[in-house]
Amino acid sequence: MAKYSLSINGKIMSVEADDDTPLLWVLRDNLNLVGTKFGCGVAQCGACTVDLDGEALRSCVLPVSAVGKRKVVTIEGLSEDGDHPLQKAWEELDVSQCGYCQSGQLMAASTLLKSTPDPTDQQIDEAMTNICRCGTQVRIRKAIHLAAKKLNTK
Amino acid sequence: MSTKTKFILVGLTFISAFGLAFSVSLHRPTEKDYISISPLKNDSIASVEAFKQVYKVLMSPRCVNCHPKGDIPLQGDNSVIHSMQPKRGKDGKGLYAMKCANCHQQSNSPGLNAPPGNPNWHLPSADMKMVFEGKTAHELAKQLLNPELNGHKDIKMLIAHADDGLVKAGWNPGEGRTVPPLTYAQFKKAWITWLQTGAYAPAQ
Amino acid sequence: MDFMNSRRNFLKVSALTGGGILFGLVFPSFETNDTSTALADYMPNIYIKIKPDGKIVLMAPNPEIGQGVKTSLPIIIAEELGVDWKKIEVELAPLDNRYGRQTAGGSGAIRGRYADLRKMGAAAREMFVNAAAQIWSVSAADCIADDGMVIHKSSGKKLSYGELASKAVTMQIPANPTLKDPKDFKYIGTRITDVDVHSIVTGKPLFGIDTRREGMLFAMIARSPAYGKTLGNVDDTKARKVNGVKNVIKLKNSVAVLATSTWAAKKGRDALVIQWNTTGKLENSSDHFAGFKEILEKGPTTVGRNDGDVEIAKQKATKVLDVYYEIPTLSHCQMEPLNFFADVRDGKVELYGPTQVPDQLRNDVAEKLGINKDNITVVVPRQGGGFGRKLMTDNGVEAALVSAAAQSPVQVQWTREDDMQNDFYRPAEMYRYRAALTANELLAWHQSAVGIGRGIRGDSYVAGAMVNYRSDSQGFNSNTPTGWWRAPGACTMAYVAESFFDEICLELKKDPVAFRLDFFKKAKDAPVGRLGYDPIKYKTVVELVAKMSNWGTTPTGVYRGFATWFSFGSYAAQVVEVKLEDGKPRVTKVYCAVYCGRVINLSGAENQIQGAIVDGINHAMFPKVTFVDGAVQETNFNTYNFLRMYDAPLDIEVKFVESDEAPTGLGEPALPPIAAALGNAIFAATGKRLRRLPFAGQL
């Protein structure tokens, strides 16, 4: 066990964990930030995606010891009041079905919009590689476009 | 031009490149460099034999998977298209929000099916793709020796490349993946032998 | 029902949901002749609660697995009750027999509850109206109810349902409340957003996996690495030394490691040294398919249907088309890996987690633990997908056993690999189809099927429209477990039958849409034997999708495939469009027409159709499970390939046939035809007839 000081959603949080513990489980089990989901444990499905210094990190394979001073943003910190343009677009288009993968989808989409504020369909296809078995991909694509529109007319 | 003449020319090119590397090297040569590049006599037979060994390694999934034909890496011992189809990007480190390092950590993630890791995980960059996939031994040798295609590496840099962390990572592939058909020591020896005996390419 | 009785019922609800509700209303269920629901017993039922602040809470009685019933079932109550949808709250109901069939399966929630929930809402509305009329000493006929208020029409006096609640419960329960005229529907048939969407996009703890309780231990379980192997010696020395590991418990055929975190439990589990003994056959998928082929060549033993004489027709034919189709084993891969929370202490059991069959789970746990059902509570949170996996209760039962042995509250968490190796799979199947043909006529259709575990259920719609039709099948013994997988039976039958139909169209040079319409006409005008569908409805959806897609006017560079299927009471017809990119087909657009009676929530219904189509494309294209020596080879998404965004259609256009009929199934019916529609489009694009799933490796 070692002590780690992590920057999560704008706050410094202190946790005690084995150094090989994936950030995912530190978030879920130590910090009770359960919005970040476990789906495969091997960085395939993207349910565990968090924003790490602007990159869409798959937190299930990122050991807590490797986080360092990098800033972590989870779904709980995507916006203060749940009103990020992506969150609003997701609600407006009623994107989710079971809803389980959506926090990872939103975090992947938010990092995409940081680097590519008005992505084309192709850019969305290339960047959004999260799995959704319910099949909400068509609505996700539309919601990202809608969010981009909201962002760019702000 | 006969095949033999071609070999001699290739050999000469690299002898000169070799000499140049000593005089204008950008980094201070270490002791290891001097040891590893003590030049041997050109020997086309030994060189080609060494490259055949090298080729077996380079065409193994551990190497070819990140030297694909297209802009998407391969994965697994069966070298299939990487499951979420990440793209190379300009610097070889991914595209938009899909970076190699989003999943490939500093070291192998533990467990079956988990991604292998390395601090420098990447594909060759978009302007220097260094394709291995589908190449014959002849084509691959030629490509490796051509500074326009090999990342502007001279022979010394090529020799040093055997010590690259990402190259070595091939022999530490993580759970459930096979290692290349030679040991790392065997590979390094074959690689250096190939380069030091004239870097002859096997016949077409 | 008297007031006291309703108070007792209310108090029970209050205890179950743990809310600080001081006052509640309960309404009885109704005598019903509809034996399809389990409400035939006269039992009080609880769907509507009113909080002290007047806030109205509607209970959603069935498990929510992504099919949208937490939203659509309360819409039905709200419609008749006359409340403002924006002001109500919705809760998932706990397991309680008074709710009847609390199952997520068979596309049955809306179908089974539509009539009953309307009555429930309408009865409550009448009680509020009667209460207000009594208070005002006016005739109830002069009062109307809307947006949670009763209004006296002439005086304009108003009382809210909250204000009326204490009076309302003393009212006589109307035996036959007047239902709304559907033309006055305010919510049913409109677009309503999922009630949980805000919680979902803000990452609130909604799912079983999010359960965190005081003193809870996290557990992972080592289960057999292959079917045919059972637990032998266990050495847990190393596991117990893992930091955070608290306990190791040996179950009948598995070993649980309990720890203070999920990661510690996993490390502990992985540190167990277990000897697995081979006690059964170690099976291979390749042997399954070889066995199937042998049976199909000989002829399966069970005759499902036998109209006319297919053998005589084959002799008369100028050509007999004789082809085999192969369906691999599939895993469920719901996105939330299995888990369950259980607290078994002092003879009481608390269960909280994902299951599609809470009632069955309670029965199974009662039996395994020898604890009376009355001492077992089951609460089912929102679930990260179901698809049939959680019609099996193994995850909940196992958690209860671990908690009972550990005498501690426990959350058992499965890894994806655990899920894949310990599934109840969609069975591998093989079909042999034979068609007796002349130059321009189909004389006979002979369908033979074999699958792991069972024969094949059902027939194509050609049964009933053909003089010579035969279907036969046979089960295949295996120790690899099988179960229900979204649209069981239909999901594979539709692929093979509708692909084969396309092959016949090609042989006979018939248009796939026009030729199908011929069959529906024959089925209507001169049915042969029993008809398992309504040919008019089939015709309606086929014509609608043809119109939507301008069938017959394919744009340049676009290739199309068509298929249709009837399942779970609903009809779906689909046109898939593909384009070739670097010689490989990519789905660009899908059109889908659906006949499912009245649509409750247009947004949710459309989402189900679009989702089923993407789900169906995914499983037609990418994944398969292969058994080698009893072990699953594809144990995570790196080898069990799944569709990603770039494989999803750019657009899916959905239209519902307008209908006043009661709703029929919706969670499953759009999945079955899509694999065939896609395969038929791929054939149009590439000339390759794909008779084996998944397609991707063959393109």
Automatic annotation (TrEMBL), chain A:
The keyword ATP-binding does not apply. Signal peptide: none annotated. InterPro entries: 2Fe-2S-bd, 2Fe-2S-bd_dom_sf, 2Fe-2S_ferredoxin-like_sf, 2Fe-2S_ferredoxin-type, 2Fe2S_fd_BS, Beta-grasp_dom_sf, Diverse_Oxidoreductases. PROSITE patterns: 2FE2S_FER_1, 2FE2S_FER_2. Coiled coil: none annotated. The keyword Ligase does not apply. Residues 2-78 form the 2Fe-2S ferredoxin-type domain. GO terms for molecular function: 2 iron, 2 sulfur cluster binding; metal ion binding; oxidoreductase activity. CDD domains: fer2. Keywords: 2Fe-2S, Iron, Iron-sulfur, Metal-binding, Oxidoreductase. This is (2Fe-2S)-binding protein.
From TrEMBL, chain B:
InterPro entries: Cyt_c-like_dom_sf, Multihaem_cyt_sf. SUPFAM superfamilies: Multiheme cytochromes. GO terms for molecular function: electron transfer activity; heme binding. This is Cytochrome c domain-containing protein. It comes from Flavobacterium alvei.
